[in-house]
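Support reply, case 0932

Customer input (verbatim):
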Amino acid sequence: MPATASLPIASLHTYSEKPGQTTFRSKQSLRDRTDRSWQIILFKRYRSDSLQGLYLRLVGFPGLVTVDSQKPLTIATGSSLQWQVATELDPQTAALPDYVGQYNVMSVLSELSGDIPLQIEIALGDGSTAELVVPPFAVHEWRELTAMSPTSTS
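Our regenerated output:
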């Protein structure tokens, strides 16, 4: 069987959380360079057709990692593009556990022009860095989610 038969299945989901509120979400599970598992969740939420933000939430395993929320997330294309993104919670989230980091990535994703792998560096509480590679299929899904809106899915 050809290798292309095992391509990942898209995991884009739309949630009508309450009247007038819609959230679009992409969820992937990736491993960092030291083989720790992370859930990578990209989501954007609309309230009354007004965009609240586009957020990347990185969830490590409780007890194994502590995300340093005082340091920015680094996202790079591996070539010349690199972004530093500060921690930012969406309006509905008061706090997150210490093994979770969340960042507004609207400016990053608006600058991507292709489905190229992204390198993500997450600052950890012990001074080290977790390094993840987001594969092209996930970047493609993120770019699709970026284009979605409540009016485009009606």
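We compared this against your earlier run and they match. Two observations from our side: The helical segments are 106-111, 136-147. Residues 1-9 have pLDDT under 50 and may be disordered. Please reopen the case if you see a mismatch on your end.
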